[in-house]
Write a structure and sequence with these properties.
The complex is a heterodimer of chains A (315) and B (269). With 315 residues, chain A is α/β, with parallel strands linked by helices. In chain A, 37% of the residues lie in helices and 21% in strands. Chain A starts with a strand and ends in a 6-residue tail after the last helix. The chains are: A alpha/beta (315), B alpha/beta (269).
């Protein structure tokens, strides 16, 4: 059943509230959007509403963590990362066990437009040491990622979608931190692929649709879901490069500094001679329906397929 | 010097020696807050240097992290670490970083130095203490220049909402910051009125008078339902005449000659 990863996050917090008595939830006037409102209603003493003051929320989260709590601080991705210096010092330098949850990632939020779109959040946070960055590809994975995040000792950034995402996993899927997982490949499995696509979050469904669309055209592509952006699964890049003519990355984020960069860095540091086609926006976003925006910014299934086919020299 | 607590003389001397040995650092704001820290740590803070992770301890967050030498001098004096470490300030590999870092040194409650974040961190600690029903108190110290940071006011707005009467803010009002006097760079006054308007109870005090500091901290502990703030009126560089009220001494180390002159003045030897 299609479900927004933010919705899966909200319901999982409720489910795990008793199992994690130190869990506390912090909001900055967006609890109805980040989907923490149900937790706030059921556990009012463990929910702190900070109003429209994200810096203070993040700093207070650090203080709560230094006193043994497991604070989950939620807001839109763009508003959290706007407080980068507070994240850097209050959270990271303190090694505070803070969980930052950025919802409303990317163009996928649609009509609200550029100022509400988190499109540089991964780029900004990837530069910080010791933070884990997760972006689940469907609700099933989001629930497991939340459970992992609460158990993990250390700062985490969880990036979630406003829009509903199709299921990309079978019901028996087990999320594994640090691993990119294969979500689609042609049957029977070819020995060689024209492309291996790495997608994450809101773009995985479109990447799978693109790979399916390409198959009858004699172009064999497979799709990995990169739910862990930091640390990145270098081994998956290594193995993909060995059997693929090119790697394609697809993300609802600026084309710089995010998933594409993680794949390029892995390929370069491993000395792999493989071209990487990085898809993502180059702009700050704009208003429109999510589908229109994915089409316009090159993230729809047809646009992904087109990019896979494009002569590399023209990229 | 009659208005300076007797034990603060040694702490002042430590600050001067430390910064001289380091060759850089912030004497002005360290000397202005040292009397407050001396009284806080010796008479009010419930702490145990042998158990720096004691869950029920009171906590002190030095939001004005550049005054780290003052905090290090006090922590060493209370036995948190070997006093010989003081001379390693700012050296590669030293636990005495240029600005305080938690986990490198026992007794440091929070890594600070990016101004404006300490009140939020302290607020989170105060929330946790309330949630756990611990009777401990949380203290945060800001510089007056630091009050120019917007995040401070976010925290000031939030603390009364959460009824954090276990949280005390002290502002080291030395009227100095790097680019000049606070009242010129970006005026704050009436600071007491601003804090009162944010629903804090506020008291002004002479931040170099041990008995006034003692009384103010007693008053802060009497908070009920509202947080209390102390505006410690201080002199930047207090105790070293050629540093007093000279903003140039905000972030400059004395040379050997100046160090000797400062120590002579402080210790009266």
């Amino acid at each position: 059943m299609p479900e927004a990863t933010r919705a899966a996050f909200g319901s999982t917090l409720l489910e795990l509230a008793e199992a994690f008595p130190n869990l506390v939830v912090l909001d900055a006037d967006l609890s109805k959007s980040t989907m923490t409102a149900a937790f706030a209603e059921k556990y009012p003493s463990r929910h702190f509403e900070f109003g429209i003051a994200e810096s203070n929320m993040i700093g207070a989260a650090a203080g709560l963590a230094l006193s043994g709590k497991i604070p989950v601080a939620a807001s839109f991705a763009c508003f959290l990362v706007g407080r980068l210096e507070t994240i850097r010092v209050a959270v990271i330098l303190n090694r505070a066990n803070v969980k930052l949850v950025g919802t409303h990632a990317g163009l996928g939020i649609g009509e609200d437009g550029a100022s509400q779109m988190g499109l540089e959040d991964i780029a900004a946070l990837r530069g910080l040491p010791r933070i884990a960055i997760l972006q689940p590809g469907d609700a099933l994975e989001a629930r497991q990622a939340v459970a992992w995040m609460l158990k993990h000792e250390g700062p985490v950034y969880l990036r979630l979608t406003r829009q509903k995402l199709e299921d990309i996993h079978k019901p028996d899927y087990k999320f594994e931190f640090g691993k990119a997982d294969l979500v689609w490949q042609p049957e029977p499995k070819p020995r060689h692929f024209q492309a291996t696509i790495f997608a994450s979050g809101g773009t995985v469904g479109g990447a799978i649709a693109a790979a399916k669309e390409l198959l009858p055209r004699g172009f064999s592509a497979r799709v990995f879901n990169a739910a862990t952006i930091k640390p990145f699964d270098e081994q998956a890049v290594d193995q993909a490069a060995a059997v693929s003519e090119r790697l394609v990355t697809v993300e609802d984020h600026n084309v710089s500094g995010g998933l594409g960069a993680a794949v390029c860095e892995a390929a370069a540091s491993l000395g792999l001679k493989v071209p990487v086609v990085a898809l993502g926006t180059r702009e700050l976003g704009e208003s429109g329906s999510p589908a229109e925006l994915y089409e316009r910014h090159g993230l729809s299934a047809p646009r992904i397929a087109e990019a896979c086919l494009r002569n590399l020299s023209s990229c | 010097m009659a208005d300076v607590a007797p034990d603060a003389k040694e702490l002042r001397a430590d600050i001067i020696r430390m910064i001289t040995a380091a060759g850089s650092g912030h004497p002005g704001g360290s000397l202005s807050i040292i009397d407050f820290l001396a009284v806080l740590y010796s008479k009010h803070l419930r702490h145990d240097p042998r158990r720096p992770d004691w869950p029920d301890r009171d906590r002190f967050v030095l939001s004005k992290g550049h005054a780290a030498p003052a905090l290090y001098a006090v922590l060493a004096r209370h036995g948190y670490f070997d006093r010989n470490l003081l001379s390693s300030l700012r050296k590669l590999g030293s636990p005495l970083q240029g600005h305080p870092e938690r986990r490198r040194l026992p007794g440091i409650e929070a890594s600070t130095g990016s101004l404006g974040q300490g009140p939020s961190i302290a607020l989170g600690m105060a929330l946790a203490a309330k949630l756990d029903g611990r009777g401990c108190r949380i203290y945060a110290a800001c510089g007056d220049g630091e009050m120019q940071e917007g995040q401070v006011w976010e925290a000031l707005m939030a603390a009364p909402k959460f009824q954090l009467d276990n949280l005390t803010l002290v502002v080291d009002c030395n009227d100095g910051q790097i680019d000049g006097h606070v009242h010129e760079v970006m005026p704050l006054e009436p600071l007491a009125g601003k804090l009162a308007a944010f629903n804090w109870e506020v008291r002004d005090l002479d931040g170099h008078d041990p008995s006034a500091i003692d009384a103010a901290l007693d008053w802060a502990k009497g908070a009920r339902g509202k947080p209390r703030a102390l505006l410690a009126r201080t002199v930047k560089g207090k105790g070293v005449s050629f540093m007093e009220n000279q903003v140039d001494w905000h972030g400059r180390a004395p040379n050997q000659e100046q160090c000797a002159a400062a120590l002579k003045e402080i210790l009266g030897a």
